[in-house]
Specification:
It is elongated, with a radius of gyration of 19 Å. The longest helix has 7 residues. It is mainly beta and 146 residues long. The strands form 2 sheets. Strands 1-2-5-6-7-8-9 form a 7-stranded antiparallel beta sheet. Strand 3 and strand 4 form a beta hairpin. The protein is built from 1 helix and 9 strands.
Length: 146
C-alpha cells in the first residue's frame, strides 16, 4: 500500500506499508525469504511472514533545495522467529527480529541536470537474543538527470 499526500506547496508526506511472505527480494524480512525449523528429526521450510513499512516527510526549502526525513521498520512475526530459533548454527537465518532506520538528507540541484546529496542514517537491528545492534552512516551522493 502506498500513500502520497501533498500537505502544502512546500511539504509532502509519502509512505508505504507491506505485509506478506517471502518478501526478501523487495528488501523486507531481513533479506530472508524462508526459515528452517525442526520437529524431532524432521526439517521443515516455511516462508517468512513479514510486516513493515516506511514514511517520509519532504520539505522544499527553495527551487533547488529539498530536505527529507524518514523512518522505516521491518518486522517478521515472533512465532516464526521463535520456531526458527533452534536452527543449527550454520543456518543462514540468524533470528532477525526487527530492523528499523531513520534517515535525513539534503539534496541540492545547482543546475537542471545535476543533483548533490548529503545523508545521515541510523540503523537498529534486533535479533531473537542479545542486545540491539545499531549503526550510523553518513553518505554523499551525486546524480545526473536526463
Amino acid at each position: 500500500m502506498d500513500l502520497r499526500l501533498p500537505l502544502s506547496r512546500y511539504f509532502e508526506l509519502t509512505a508505504n506499508a507491506h505485509r506478506g511472505q517471502a518478501l526478501a527480494g523487495l528488501g523486507a524480512g531481513g533479506y530472508v525469504n524462508d526459515y528452517h525449523f525442526y520437529e524431532g528429526p524432521n526439517e521443515y521450510v516455511h516462508a517468512l511472514d513479514d510486516v513493515g513499512g516506511w514514511t517520509q516527510l519532504k520539505a522544499m526549502a527553495g527551487p533547488r533545495v529539498e530536505i527529507n526525513a524518514g523512518y522505516g521498520t521491518d518486522n517478521p512475526f515472533a512465532k516464526e522467529i521463535q520456531a526458527a530459533a533452534p536452527s543449527p548454527p550454520d543456518s543462514y537465518y540468524t533470528g532477525l527480529a526487527r530492523n528499523r532506520s531513520f534517515y535525513s538528507n539534503v539534496t541540492f540541484s545547482p543546475s537542471a541536470y545535476l543533483l548533490l546529496s548529503l545523508e545521515y542514517r541510523r540503523l537498529w537491528t534486533n535479533f531473537s537474543a542479545g542486545p540491539t545492534n545499531f549503526s550510523d552512516a553518513i553518505g554523499i551522493g551525486a546524480g545526473y538527470k536526463f
